[in-house]
Amino acid sequence: MTRGYLSFRSGITIPKLIIAVVSIFAVKILLLFLLNETTPRQTQHINATFANYHYEYQIFTHLSPDRCARTKLFVFLISALSSIDQRNVIRNTWAQEKHVKKSVVVFIVGRPINIEQDMALREEVLQYNDIIETTIPDTYNYTAFKVHPKGLLCP
């Protein structure tokens, strides 16, 4: 005889499943909070005008100031937020420290649209310290705006 609630074939009951799902969600929220607290963020509001087009956006610099101090060349790579594999290939090949001694290679990405993207971005920022996040959409039409603030990021 059952106790008045459903169970799956594996023996997991609905209350246990709900507790597991809520626990996983709580851990995700806690991790996001901790990552946001430990991720250096400096918000800058930018007004950019190109020809007859004006656009306002924000950048969140995730670079430590010491990265700019030794810089002779600033390599600014526009990257889609979802292109982590491509960024890792670049980091592991020609953008390695031994190849770019007096250069800084950074990736500029758009803003995360969900909690999973945000958590993945925070982890990547903490691990590599080479991400600049913007509120600029990840489309070709906004490419010029993504390279516009270089002078503000690493004067």
From TrEMBL:
Sorted UniProt keywords: Glycosyltransferase, Golgi apparatus, Membrane, Signal-anchor, Transferase, Transmembrane, Transmembrane helix
Coiled coil location: none
Localization per Swiss-Prot or TrEMBL: Golgi apparatus membrane
Residue stretches spanning the membrane: 12-35
Glycoprotein found in the keyword field: no
The UniProt record lists the keyword 4Fe-4S: no
E.C. numbers: 2.4.1.-
Membrane topology recorded in Swiss-Prot or TrEMBL: Single-pass type II membrane protein
GO BP of this protein: protein O-linked glycosylation
MF-aspect GO terms: hexosyltransferase activity
Alphabetical list of Pfam families matching this protein: Galactosyl_T
One of the record's GO cellular component terms: Golgi membrane
Primary localization: Golgi
Uppermost EC category: transferase
Family listed: Belongs to the glycosyltransferase 31 family.
Name of the featured protein: Hexosyltransferase
Lineage: Eukaryota, Metazoa, Ecdysozoa, Nematoda, Chromadorea
